[in-house]
Amino acid sequence: MSITNLEQLFQDKIDAETKIEPRDWMPDAYRKTNIRQISQHAHSEVVGMLPEGNWISRAPTLKRKAILLAKVQDEGGHGLYLYSAAETLGMSRDEMIADLLSGKAKYSSIFNYPAITWADMGAIGWLVDGAAILNQVMLCRTSYGPYARAMVRICKEESFHQRQGFDILLSLSRGTDEQKAMCQDSINRWWWPSLMMFGPKDSESTNSDQSMKWKIKRKTNDELRQQFVDMIAEQIKTLGMRLPDDQLKWNENRKHYDYGEINWEEFWNVVKGNGPCNKQRLEARRKAHNDGAWVREAAKVHAEKKAAREKQAAA
Ligand code: 3HC
To answer: Is the CB of 52 under 6 A from ligand 1?
Structure first.
């Protein structure tokens, strides 16, 4: 059967909402773009543990420490599900990790900003995980089966992440003047970088058109971003705080909130590796990888010895 026929059959499956599975025929470009997106998603989960991990020992109460600990552990697990989903497409975990540590692979720009006060744990949970949930709920319907299934469990845990973040900010917003100011400062610093999580404008998104055709994406970057703005613009009213955007205004005709222009120069600068914490994040991941080399070595030797014993027993 010609490639053209195969590609048509593949698109027919996508259009019929049939999930694509690892052993199915797929265009090389479909495989490639899924490996790209899923591995970068996995990298984001693991690098995302760093800003929050820094605050586990600084949490203000044992309860907040336990909650943050659970959240950070969840993110590590999300990274493992996603690396496993990407491996089903033929790229090994070692190759993916090597691409991250060499700086070749991307991860979400949001994790290149510093978490400088306890309120940031709230803003990250409420805004960053809130943005991630909108994107990930959509990805529960992505056309690649293992990716969609990984999303189902991740979304359940992300909802808890967003709630605990909002709860931190709610406590601060009802606290002393100093705590209220810390809450507002954190929202000011995390709002615009959270909007950048959804990617460039649709007009500058190099992957979106094809990803929409292949139903890897079900909504465009701008559609998800608008959904997020509309959600947060309502939720922030409960906090009695404000978003740092003078152009934020309900538009009755559009039935959406209008909002100001994102600083795209900042976005691309961070994506290209020049954000406030890019260097620090990669150094931390390289150190963790090197410090963990003995564990990988021990696991490898253990597996080899076990295989040799099993071979001897079978002889
Ligand atoms: N940070 C870094 N790079 C970004 C980016 C961001 N916020 N947004 C876009 N980019 C990159 C893209 O990867 C692409 O580069 P590439 O072709 O070399 O990979 C380029 O900018 C152009 O962007 P596109 O819109 O064409 O790229 P996509 O179609 O892939 O859309 C995306 C970008 C919406 C982020 C999409 O990749 C996606 O949905 N990814 C899965 C979700 C994800 O990775 N979320 C990251 C956060 S995970 C998280 O927050 C964990 C939570 O527990 C806290």
So the answer is: no
